[in-house]
Specification:
The longest helix is centred in the C-terminal third of the chain and has 35 residues, at about 260-295. The chain is α+β, with helices and mostly antiparallel strands. It is elongated, with a radius of gyration of 28 Å. The chain is built from 10 helices and 11 strands. Helix 2 packs across helix 6 (about 260-295), helix 2 crosses helix 9 and helix 7 runs antiparallel to helix 8 (about 325-340). The two termini are about 15 Å apart. The strands form 4 sheets. It has a 5-stranded antiparallel beta sheet with strand order 6-5-7-8-9. InterPro entries: PDZ, PDZ_6, PDZ_sf, Pept_M50_Zn, Peptidase_M50. This is PDZ domain-containing protein.
């Protein structure tokens, strides 16, 4: 039930986000005097609606987004009634049209920023000083946090009733102890400890450690587990020893901020997220073969794109595992990505309309400088083949990601 609740909550969050996206278009259009005839949540048959002024508001039967109708978005639109010619959107200055068309993405960015600010002062944002690579973790001091058990097979999952207890816990080691030697072999970093422990045969071993600055020793019965080589996480597994501990980093993974400091931290994190989003979008064409492989039976690459279906499933998993921070960070990431994607200069995206508006403005300025007649507005009908191509490619990619998310979804938690 908790998984289903998470799915419903995340789907509702997406629906609200998209509805607010369309509300952003509507409110800015109305503020500039453009005519908005319809604003609906959902698609398909109308379940309920009412009319206030010149705009009809309502709810459709299929809760997959929403839309608003602004009269005269392009010169080729034939929805302009007599007397409304001056209120057609395409007749307004380019800066006003830019604000209206970008208002949807701005709404997504605002939702992401507000959520991030709240997270910053409640749960904290990722610490920029926290190690970001496996090599960074290996360079950390070998300060331990006791694991509740040892998972024998090579699997990232929660402990189960029949899993062996942590050898370190049985030997009465404690969180915060710093390992300095195993069977007399010195250890200075977490990477050293992993190398030494795995090279030690399973069974009895002497572990030297520091607790509160004082050296101590303990007899530990190392467990036998299946693990791949440290330098090849996807390599073949073999039997090695395990102490039953995790790294306790010297720097906290998250940092909480006060209400004022949270503004700067949110801005910094947003900049990092923007770079990561740009890199992720650049990698999308490279990940198409991996998506196809996931559909045809291969292991799903965690770095492959996910659809709204996949994000919703992850939201359900987060609630099922009481990981609300993951739930809200998914909400932030999705809104930020949609905001950026929607500004791409491609029709029928909002960014395509903005690009055309500024192209017209630049062309008019250039023609005026060289003494040529203004060529006027772009003919959208001539761009329809390109628009259909974008829709076709986007639709095929969406179908591919949705299929992968149904057949072989990415999971963050063991179920």
């Amino acid at each position: 039930m908790s998984y289903l609740l998470g799915v419903v909550l995340f789907a509702l969050a997406i629906l609200i986000s998209v509805s607010l996206h369309e509300a952003g278009h509507m409110l800015t259009a109305k503020a500039f005097g453009m005519k908005v005839t319809r604003y609906f949540v959902g698609f398909g048959p109308t379940l309920w609606s009412f009319k206030r002024g010149e705009t009809e508001y309502g709810i459709k039967g299929i809760p997959l987004g929403g839309f608003c109708k602004i009269v005269g978005m392009t010169p080729q639109d034939d929805d302009v009634e007599p007397g409304d010619e001056k209120r057609a959107m395409w007749r307004y200055p380019v800066w006003k049209r830019t604000i209206v068309m970008s208002a949807g993405s701005i709404t997504h960015f605002a939702l992401a920023l507000i959520a991030l600010w709240i997270i910053a002062i409640t749960a904290g944002l990722p610490n920029p000083k926290f190690p970001s690579t496996e090599d960074g973790f290996k360079a950390e001091p070998a300060v331990i946090a006791l694991a509740p058990c040892v998972v024998v097979e090579n699997a990232a999952r929660a402990c189960q009733a029949d899993d062996p207890a942590s050898p370190a816990e049985k030997a009465q080691l404690k969180d915060g102890d710093r390992i300095t030697a195993v069977n007399g072999r010195p250890v200075s970093t977490w990477g050293d400890m992993l190398d030494v422990v795995r090279a030690t045969p399973p069974g009895a071993a002497t572990v030297t450690f520091e607790r509160d600055g004082r050296p101590q020793e303990a007899r530990v019965d190392l467990a036998a587990v299946q693990r791949p080589p440290l330098d090849d996480p996807k390599g073949a597994t073999s039997s090695v020893s395990a102490l039953g501990v995790a790294l306790r980093p010297s720097t906290p993974p998250r940092v909480e901020y006060g209400p004022i400091a949270a503004f700067g931290a949110t801005a910094d994190f947003t900049g990092t997220m923007a770079v990561q989003t740009a890199h992720a979008m650049q990698r999308i064409p490279q990940k198409v073969p991996a998506l196809w492989s996931a559909i045809t039976g291969s292991e799903r690459d965690m770095d492959t794109p996910i659809s709204v279906v996949g994000a919703t499933r992850l939201g359900g998993e987060a609630v099922e595992n009481n990981a609300w921070l993951v739930f809200f960070m998914l909400f932030v990431s999705l809104n930020f990505f949609i905001g950026v994607f929607n500004l791409l200069p491609l029709l029928p995206l909002d960014g395509g309309h903005i690009a055309i508006a500024w192209f017209e403005r630049a062309r008019s300025w250039l023609y005026a400088r060289i003494g040529r007649r203004d060529p006027g507005r772009v003919d959208y009908l001539k761009l329809m083949p390109f628009t259909y191509a974008v829709i076709l490619i986007g639709g095929a990619f969406t179908l591919l990601t949705v299929t992968a998310d149904v057949i072989n979804p990415i999971t963050l938690f063991s179920r």
